[in-house]
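CO-FOLDING WORKSHEET

Operator: S.A.
Ligand of interest: copper (II) ion
Run index: 170
Mode: holo prediction, single chain
Checklist:
[x] sequence pasted
[x] SMILES validated
[ ] output reviewed
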Amino acid sequence: MKTKKLALYTGIAAIVIGAGATTLALQADESAQPSASLTESEEAGQTITIYKSPNCGCCQSWAEHLATNGFDTRIVETDNLNEIKQQHGVPRDMASCHTALVDDLVIEGHVPANDILAYLEDPQFNTAGLSVPGMPHGTPGMETGRKDDYQVIAFNANGQQQVFREHKDY
Ligand SMILES: [Cu+2]
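OUTPUT RECEIVED:
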């Protein structure tokens, strides 16, 4: 009787140890997965360089909106934004609070991330830049509770402008 019981206990102990080993193996697998997918999304992200004044809160919120939507944001703080706008050919009537670059493409003001991505998928109008002139309420980074209609304008190097996207009743 005694030896039978002992054999039974040993058997249970072996099963418990076996299960423990399986659990450990599973945990190792799980911890490997998230880091792998993080690397993938970082690689897929489009790099955007954002020139903004150090005190601009809505510029910071817009940068966060881009980061949330998969952009790899690089922020350059400057007090000389007018010079940056001139360097990159932003027309006066297209100007807003911040100026950004995706490669050579200028992104001026609170342009939604999805509109930038849509343009990059299908470039058109010989565009030098996309702009939301001024700072309309309701644009990404300008969530004030009020939602004004606004347009995303594509401008080219000759000063020509076309409406790229319209946002109404959103
Ligand atoms: Cu702003």
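REVIEW:
Residues 1-44 form one domain.
The longest helix spans residues 2-44.
[x] output reviewed
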